[in-house]
Amino acid sequence: MSRKIKLGILGGGGDSLIGILHRVASSMYDRYELVGGVFNIDLDESIKFAEEIGIGTSRIYKDLDSLIEAENALPEHERIQVVSVLTPNFLHFPMAKKLLENKFHVICEKPMTTTYEEAKELREIQAKSNKVFAVTYTYTGYPMVRQMKEMIASGAIGKIQKIDVQYYQGWINPIIHDKEKRSNTWRLDPEKSGISCCVGDIGTHAFDMIEYVSGLHVKEILADLNYLYKDNLMDIDGTILLRFSEYVKGVLRSSQIATGEENNFTVSIYGDNAALKWEQENPNYLYMLEDGKPMQVLKPGHEYNSAFSLAGTKLPPGHPEGIFDSMGNIYKGVARAINNEEYHPGEFPGISDGLRGMNFIEKAVDSHKNGNTWVKIDEN
């Protein structure tokens, strides 16, 4: 058994859901050891948090520059090898850039950057650094999503002809209708969040998912976004038409004002022979639909699933797995890449996925602002 990979984390302190998700995920499969990082911009708070989660405080740093300087002064076998970037969006690019330039592997929350140009620059830096770079489109780690991907690739549903993806939340509803609250939420601040809220936060998950499971690339989009108030600068809802080819089309719907919705993420892929449907709130069920036949329900852990799906399944059939397990599968794939082990190309989203996500976000906003026109997605 190889030694554990030394992990550092930027952000994710306090009661951050993302922080808990990444820490738990990294502990699965016994591949990583969390040794330090910068959990908070306040050093005292960062140290206090490290004590609360039970890690030593000698490698808790005041900022990223301090982390890089101190870690690179250590013998190579003792250094942090990979850093997870869990900070607000505007910090993703400068932090990831500096980490790559200083020879650290990177696991980055989405959206990867705040602009497409930053994303292109980051890809160039990553290519030169030859370091592993993962973007945490978390839902690609679910066993039944991976089963869906493998079934479509094997021709189980025939030729794809229609794609429908929906990601509905309602969390911003109590905020958006209060002028003071919407003015003080970083998600609605372009300086911190980028040019998009809803499309950038959850629409990009949906975009990545449909390309991941279908194996197709979106060629053109037409977006109609909703800002709800004139003084609100960022979209909080949107419907986007998709063209994959002349005869393969679809729709992407995302909203953060879908009152009462929690995390309603559903993807449906329709072929000329059958269809597959998956729902994030019931992630252990993959539905297969065929004309004239009863609906089939596939579940994780059974031998009828693909090797790729089974490799991401930790429990016997009938034992539910969830989002922590999904993120854990991504971390496992990154560990394999770092250790130069053989791994499935779908085990974790890479920098090209992050690049396409940023291109999609900017083109969606452009399409809306240009009067709901069709715009092309770059092929990269």
TrEMBL record:
<protein>
    <submittedName>
        <fullName>Gfo/Idh/MocA family protein</fullName>
    </submittedName>
</protein>
<dbReference type="InterPro" id="IPR036291">
    <property type="entry name" value="NAD(P)-bd_dom_sf"/>
</dbReference>
<dbReference type="Pfam" id="PF01408">
    <property type="entry name" value="GFO_IDH_MocA"/>
</dbReference>
<dbReference type="Pfam" id="PF22725">
    <property type="entry name" value="GFO_IDH_MocA_C3"/>
</dbReference>
<dbReference type="InterPro" id="IPR055170">
    <property type="entry name" value="GFO_IDH_MocA-like_dom"/>
</dbReference>
<feature type="domain" description="Gfo/Idh/MocA-like oxidoreductase N-terminal">
    <location>
        <begin position="28"/>
        <end position="137"/>
    </location>
</feature>
<dbReference type="InterPro" id="IPR000683">
    <property type="entry name" value="Gfo/Idh/MocA-like_OxRdtase_N"/>
</dbReference>
<dbReference type="InterPro" id="IPR051317">
    <property type="entry name" value="Gfo/Idh/MocA_oxidoreduct"/>
</dbReference>
<feature type="domain" description="GFO/IDH/MocA-like oxidoreductase">
    <location>
        <begin position="145"/>
        <end position="276"/>
    </location>
</feature>
